[in-house]
Design brief:
With 391 residues, the chain is an alpha+beta fold. It is built from eleven helices and 16 strands. It has helices spanning 15-18, 24-28, 31-44, 77-86, 113-121, 215-230, 254-267, 269-275, 286-294, 317-323, 330-339, and strands at residues 48-50, 64-73, 95-103, 124-133, 152-159, 163-170, 184-186, 189-197, 200-208, 238-243, 310-313, 345-348, 351-356, 359-360, 366-368, 385-390. The radius of gyration is 20 Å and the shape is globular.
Length: 391
Amino acid sequence: MTEHDPLSHNLNNNFQDLARFRSTGEMLTSELYQQLRPEIEKIFNTVDLQNRAVTAGTLHSDFIRATAWNIERGTEFDRLLEVLSGHPVIGKSDLLLLTELDHGMARSGNRHVARELADSLEMNSAFAPCYINLEKGSGLEIDIAGENRESLHGNAVLSRHELRDPFTVRLVNGKDKMKGKEKRLGSQVSVGATVMHPLGAFRAVSIHLDAHSTQRHRAEQMKMILDHVDTLQPRLPVLLGGDWNTATYNSSNSFYTIMGYWKRVFMGVRNVIQNHFPYPDRYFEKELFQMLEKRDYDYKNLNVPGGCTLHYSVEDLAANGRMADWIPFWCFWFINWALARNEGRCSLKLDWFAGNNIDPHSEESCLVAYDVHDRANPISDHDPIILDFNL
């Protein structure tokens, strides 16, 4: 924690008492929450905006490069920084739309991940917290040594050029975050800002939609973001990017999730793995993508067709540990049985760009960076996506 950290707080001593509440509704009506409410709301109404006096400067003369990446808390910070600074493509990004960044969590070394990345990369940053974590995390994370400091988790925009007028869109939860094993205050939040690029000003928004929700709920969350952006003046080109969790499932609870697996078995496991997981816009998540197009947001030309960004293996114990927080253990037998028909693996398209008045720079402007980590020792459970674009 630094002296100039607007997100510092003194709530940690109350976490054990807050974690005793069985639902958000029960917590909100409590005397304890009413006492803590001003400090909690201060955190959720704050964007940690950092503009440097000098940045790394413009890297491209005739286009803008953006990378969107779910960095899975930032737990592999040193390796992550090596990619963001040294990768031949990602290292020349003007803009980073990052999701899942910790601030003061033991699992990521109690770093302020967004600010430390920005400092190391000589970039400006806008970080907004989604959650105040009452626990160390989920799955295997609960066994991490040490204690949380600020206990925050959120999303960020990093830019080589000045960021102005930061804003957030706090989304409605798809699931009560106080009812699961990983108890948290808050909800997903999209963070955006105006990027003052030499080729023209535009708005950039880092988006993380809820995983534990329905397809319709994810579409409604996206509508909230678009509605807010429509209110901003002056009108500027808009780039949306991040982890939209378009896994094709209704994951609001374990019953709907397992019923979804059965449906996909009847549709044909290989058919779904080949024709739906890489293309969620075709059927299962089409409401979200049809809405984008109706609102004049292009996504088809800004992404690699069928470019999956998350790869599930039945041998991935870390992923299973997190999934066990919301899927009963007996379900894993069924998942493993279904995936055995595809060598125990499947891949999903979860990460996307969309843009209003955003054009791809060339026919090879979109990329999924499959080369950033070893599958046996990944930096994150997601692959980054890259876009070269013009306004």
